[in-house]
Amino acid sequence: MKPIQLPLAVRLRDDATFANYYPGANAAALGYVERACQLEQSWVENFIWLWGAAGAGRTHLLQAACLRAEELGSRSLYLPMTECVGYGTEILDDIENCDLVALDDVQCIVGLAEWETALFHAFNRLRDAGKRLLIGAKASPRELGIELPDLQSRLNTALVFHLHELSDDEKLRALQLRASRRGLYLADEVGGYLLTHTGRSMDNLFSALEKLDEASLQAQRKLTIPFVKEVLF
To answer: Which intervals hold domain Chromosomal replication initiator protein DnaA ATPAse (predicted)?
Structure first.
């Protein structure tokens, strides 16, 4: 069953899968999010909060959960709140009809009374229906600053995971994992060159790898430092 269609352009990344996620210190979070995609879990394990800085993998895990739920025949919904706040709160209406709901960047609704109230009611409907709710934010529930006390008390019941950014060595391994999934061999020295010259943001690294993949396919060349220089710089 495909994800619900919304009046905003929300598209799950095809490569945002569990298989493509290099967990590093976030293995426990990965395990619990994967479990939440199964139908037979209690609410205690069905409400998960992932928090951490940009680049820690919050969005990847949330989208991976939606893709896995879809593969299992469940109805999923991914909502990036950075985009949703530009629409009315009715976007949260009837989300309990989904089996799994992932709300990303929830810090965007802090202090917006209408949105906090809407999320409070949506939370109650999802919980009562026994559905799965995953939330991503830049801070933990207790540190987020929610102003509606009833909503704050609900959010405090989440199973909370702090996602840690990967070390440089782990970023290299994550990049090599992603490359291998694309049928590419990325040597340590080439990956190290990318880390040094494209910035250490995982989004930048994966974007660079995507360009290299396309160029390598067209030119029928392996990934070497000279080829990387030619394509990216």
So the answer is: 14-160
pLDDT digits (tens, 9 = 90+) for 147-190: 999 999 999 999 999 999 999 999 999 999 999 988 999 999 99
User: Cβ distance 208 to 194 under 8 Å?
Assistant: yes
pLDDT, tens only, 18-31:
999 999 999 999 99
Say which residue the tokens 């998960």 belong to.
48
Q: Domain boundaries in the chain?
A: 24-162, 168-232
Question: At the topology level of CATH, where does 24-162 sit?
Answer: Rossmann fold (3.40.50)
In single-letter form, the type of residue at position 144 comes to: L
CATH of domain 168-232: 1.10.8.60
Lowest mean per-residue pLDDT among 110-124, 147-161, 202-216: 202-216
pTM: 0.85
Dihedral pair phi/psi, residue 110, rounded to 5°: -60, 130
Angle subtended at Cα 3 by Cα 116 and Cα 181, rounded to the nearest 5 degrees: 110
Q: How far apart are CA 37 and CA 34, in angstroms?
A: 5
Nearest to 2 by CA among 97, 66, 47, 61: 66
